[in-house]
Give the backbone structure.
Amino acid sequence: MKIKGKVYKCPDNIDTDVIIPAKYLNNSDPTFLSSHCLEPLVEQLNKKLTSQHIIVAGKNFGCGSSREHAPLAIKSAGIRCIVAESFARIFFRNSINIGLPLVELKDATKLFDFEDEIEIDLTDGEIINITKSQKYKIQPFPEFLKKIVSVGGLVEFVRQSLK
Amino acid sequence: MKKFQQTITQKIIAKHSDKKYVEEDEFVLSKVDLALSNDVTTPLAIKQFYNMFFNISEPKLFDKNKVVIVMDHFTPNKDIPSAQQNKFTTEFAKKFKIKHFYFGGCVGIEHALLPEEGLISPGDLIIGADSHTCTYGALGAFSTGVGSTDLASVWSTGKVWLRVPKAIKIVYYGKLNKNVFGKDLILSTIAKIGVDGANYKTIELTGEVIKKLSIFSRFAMTNMAIECGAKNGIIEPDDITYKYLLSIKSRKFKINEDLKSDKDAKYQEVVEIDCTKIFPQVALPHLPSNSINVKDLNKKIYIDQVVIGSCTNGWYEDLYLAAKVLKDKKVNPNVRCLIFPATPKIYKQALKNGLIEIFLNSGCVVNPPTCGPCLGGHLGILAEGEKAVATTNRNFIGRMGHTKSEVYLANPVVAAYSAIRGYISDN
């Protein structure tokens, strides 16, 4: 699978309160959540986040609460992949479970700039920075996780065991 | 043959995965003893639970007696959307005859309520759709937070997928200084290892200081294991643990002598912490790792609000400590001081022993048990530019309200002194 988009850069330790502030957790509708995705950061950076973007973040992306509303808000905003130097554990699980692809890449925030055009090839395990003509290898997931990812998430994975 | 050396966490995971032992980074499907969620995470779990059974069979819970739902975040219903989603969850709980459904007057903050209700035993494997589920490690259980889809899969199958975590052993030694509690120890630990210092890992809390530490201080420490990214925080059960468990009338548990880490268990890292050097802490905005000694603040930080409560510090012991400071004193006229007993039982005990009267006399607002202000939900939201000292666990941007407000994390004694002075103070 190939995903193409433009870089939206986030600093280290983006927490779930920034991804989706708790005041919006009184509604779990994906479209509603997506309209407030990363709201405090978007305001602070004054850079609009669109469905054409791929998030490129620093360390510990998604730390904090277990709210699945966070990856759901990002996925529903049309973001098809997140590249980060590292992910917080619960956010990582939640994203895999709902079928939002994640890529871990060392020094990611140093390699890309805002609005760089990039292509992520999840099958071959590489990221191409089209703007800068650079290529990076990405580590494949462990076999167990690949199984969940390949069926599109945990719901389908569980369905197969319930059938 | 020499026995395979395991940590207490590995032992619990192995036992729940029908294995003699498990190795670091191994993927396992583990049986779950208790599946917890709250009013924020349950609605999404319900949707995914139905999706899992769609066009296959009637949805069925793996065990209605092992499912716990606590309506503690946005209750009493804070607005119409919350009321709607709480109604949705309530109908689900009734339809599936969930035994441990806590709403109305039974609501307590989940991580204080479950131990008090006798639902946690040493050696249990507990999964919760709330990141602070790691709290129960104080009782020697393996417990960790997940999201709603994970929780729905536990409801459907009774199992959860886990990757066996690597372990960090944290050894606390020395003597505790005045007004230093579990909260200060864990804040200074997070400051030392960083907010992702234990990401995906276990932190095992041990040493002479832990062995003498009260159960409530232990709860505050394992509660905040997630704030350094840990999958779980755990303390080997000992006499203090068993004494606490015996104090809960409904308790049924067996003492398991093997429920501890083997002598040669593998640790990725051993961190030693000299408690003699730790003084009452304050974590500056906007990360728990920004923790320093209150006495080292180089200027007076004036505050608008104090929150004493939460799953970290809403225990009876915390209220008692705060009341001792506030007795016969007045809250500074520039400060709103909000008290949140963590459970109805704690509230009643505080009432019976005169703590509530002390709080009211000093000008505090006494609130019902709820997570409300900790996550900027309701009952204590900060305006632009306002500052609060809170005994809660997170001080992220906008955590308690406006994105330009600030939260300073501290223990209940620092919170109470700050309420009186009007600025952050430990005396």
